[in-house]
Amino acid sequence: MSDQTHEHVGSAEPVAEPATEPTSPASTQTQQRQRASQLAQALRNELQKAVIGQNAVIEDVLTALIGGGHVLLEGVPGLGKTLLVRALASCIGCEFARIQFTPDL
Fold first, then answer.
1. How far apart are the first and last CA of the chain?
2. Which residues form the ATPase AAA-3 domain (predicted)?
3. What is the pTM of this model?
4. Mean pLDDT value across residues 69-98
């Protein structure tokens, strides 16, 4: 076993190492939730900078991403669907691949 005391130079008295308190599972879970919330908010903020005025779509995409689901973005040209997905891929370090509707799909 290791002795948790050390002597400082010039000191005759041993000094105890500061004890670290064990982290409770509830505390760890709370910290993880807070960190996940911070990351989601940072991602949301970056996506809102890239795609203006599509906050509801951004929320839906993030919800699906966090929940491990799938998203099909539909809409007329010019709504920012491709821009949103490119920005999301860039933010999370993924590759972007586009599938455009064709009759054989």
1. 67
2. 70-105
3. 0.66
4. 91
